[in-house]
Amino acid sequence: VERRRIYDIVNVLESVG
């Protein structure tokens, strides 16, 4: 499961948002 990677992307998107 690559949930860590997804979380990383979500974190970046939230940071930009």
TrEMBL record:
<dbReference type="GO" id="GO:0006355">
    <property type="term" value="P:regulation of DNA-templated transcription"/>
</dbReference>
<dbReference type="InterPro" id="IPR036388">
    <property type="entry name" value="WH-like_DNA-bd_sf"/>
</dbReference>
<dbReference type="Pfam" id="PF02319">
    <property type="entry name" value="WHD_E2F_TDP"/>
</dbReference>
<keyword id="KW-0804">Transcription</keyword>
<dbReference type="InterPro" id="IPR003316">
    <property type="entry name" value="E2F_WHTH_DNA-bd_dom"/>
</dbReference>
<comment type="similarity">
    <text>Belongs to the E2F/DP family.</text>
</comment>
<dbReference type="InterPro" id="IPR036390">
    <property type="entry name" value="WH_DNA-bd_sf"/>
</dbReference>
<keyword id="KW-0805">Transcription regulation</keyword>
<keyword id="KW-0131">Cell cycle</keyword>
<dbReference type="GO" id="GO:0003677">
    <property type="term" value="F:DNA binding"/>
</dbReference>
<feature type="domain" description="E2F/DP family winged-helix DNA-binding">
    <location>
        <begin position="1"/>
        <end position="17"/>
    </location>
</feature>
<keyword id="KW-0238">DNA-binding</keyword>
<protein>
    <recommendedName>
        <fullName>E2F/DP family winged-helix DNA-binding domain-containing protein</fullName>
    </recommendedName>
</protein>
<keyword id="KW-0539">Nucleus</keyword>
<dbReference type="GO" id="GO:0005667">
    <property type="term" value="C:transcription regulator complex"/>
</dbReference>
<dbReference type="GO" id="GO:0005634">
    <property type="term" value="C:nucleus"/>
</dbReference>
